[in-house]
Amino acid sequence: MTATRCGVVAFIGRPNVGKSTLMNHLIGQKISITSRRPQTTRHRIHGILTRDNYQIVIADTPGIQEEEQRALNKVMNQTAYQALAGVDVICFTVDALKWNQGDEYVLSLLEGLQVPVFLVLNKIDTLDEKNQLLPHIARLQEKREFAEVVPVSALGGHNLDALEATLQGYLPEGPFLYDEDDITDRNLRFLAAEMIREKIFRQLGDELPHQMTVEVELWEDGPRVTHIAASILVERPGQKKILIGTNGERIKKIGIDARKEIEQLIGRKVMLRLWVRVRRGWSDDERALRSLGYVDN
Ligand code: GDP
Ligand code: MG
After folding, report:
1. Which part of the chain is CATH 3.30.300.20?
2. Residue range(s) occupied by CATH 3.40.50.300 in the chain
3. CA–CA separation, 37 vs 13, rounded Å?
4. At the topology level of CATH, where does 5-168 sit?
5. Atom of ligand 1 nearest to the CA of 17
6. Mean pLDDT over residues 268-283, rounded?
7. Which residues line ligand 1 (CB under 6 A)?
8. Summary mean pLDDT of the chain
9. Helix H segments across the chain?
10. Could you give the residue ranges of the DSSP H alpha helices within 7-121?
11. Which sign does the torsion angle of CA 233, 237, 243, 246 carry?
12. Whose CA is nearest to atom 17 of ligand 1?
């Protein structure tokens, strides 16, 4: 029997560069929610890609943010940073040619780490001038030495096989960390809550209350239908009104979209009930965050 190899790869980068999309497309299934807005990913989540003789465990992390004023941001940064301890490869992910302060900050956090760091340039489908890519890469290579440089398009599926092939060369020999059928370390309740959160992100655009979270309160697998009830927690009554929308149109649409996706995820019919509740100031209270599972321990 040939020896198996298994390792953890962390995707690190400022918000919105496409880390979650990359993970989903590498795994071939949606595990991590994505959107145009920063802060879509709030938790550390593992995606698992298993082939015949290797397993890549992908750690998707919340985008690292420079401002740490609010407790929620602070916890998110800690989660991203903890993800770096004990990984085998770091994929420092950037948005094609769009380099900014945020990228510079993340790069500074990687200084001194002994782990191989890949430079992953995502969204290359957005480039009109492909010949700008090489000079840009050369400039970034002056900032630090990268073990590998891989341009990809997560959405277009471009070069993802090359990324996987390169990654697998860096995996240490060892047994699989997860069952070969697992695609994530998170349970269905968690994934369902995340899917609801994504639909809220997509429905609300710029009206989105920044500090909003979803808790699944009931999950009952009936003989034919799975009953799920979830609360959406916001900070102010005004935000509750926005989420509900005129005559409840908005929350209804969110519920329908989320239900369809959860049905796909679990392969059963779902009855989904959503409630919007006001919980004042929760995002500033680390204890409340802990109780909602935002801190791993
Ligand atoms: P994250 O914050 O780094 O996890 O970023 P997301 O995965 O949530 O993606 C942020 C936005 O970029 C979403 O609107 C994605 O659809 C978009 N995106 C991700 N990858 C690509 C890509 O390869 N090409 C293009 N054009 N857009 C992408
Ligand atoms: Mg993300």
Report:
1. 188-291
2. 5-168
3. 14
4. Rossmann fold (3.40.50)
5. 3
6. 85
7. 13, 15-21, 34-36, 40-41, 63, 122-123, 125-126, 153-156
8. 85
9. 19-27, 71-82, 101-109, 133-143, 160-168, 188-204, 237-244, 249-266, 286-291
10. 19-27, 71-82, 101-109
11. positive
12. 18
Other beta carbons less than 10 A from residue 72's beta carbon:
24
In this prediction, residue 202 has a pLDDT band, given cuts at 50, 70 and 90, of: confident
Q: Hey, which of 11, 31, 34, 100 would you mutate to test ligand 1's pocket, going by the most ligand atoms within 8 Å of its Cβ? A: 34
The arithmetic mean of pLDDT across residues 230-242, rounded, is 90
Express each pLDDT in 128-160 by its tens digit: 878 899 999 999 999 999 999 999 999 999 999
Q: Which has the closest alpha carbon to 96: 77, 115, 122?
A: 122
Which one of 142-146, 209-213, 276-280 scores highest in mean pLDDT?
142-146
Q: Whose CA is nearest to atom 20 of ligand 1?
A: 18
Instruction: Show the tokens assigned to 228.
Output: 């799920």
- Between 65-74, 163-172, 239-248, the lowest mean confidence (pLDDT) is in 65-74
Fill in the amino acid letter for 269. Answer: K
Name the pTM for this structure. 0.73
Indicate the class that CATH gives domain 188-291.
alpha beta
> Quick one: tokens of 68?
């740490």
- The ligand that comes nearest to the alpha carbon of residue 106 is 1
pLDDT category, 293, cuts 50, 70, 90? low
Ligand 1 binding pocket mutation candidate from 11, 12, 16 (most atoms within 8 A of CB): 16
Q: How many angstroms separate the alpha carbon of residue 227 from the centre of ligand 1? A: 32
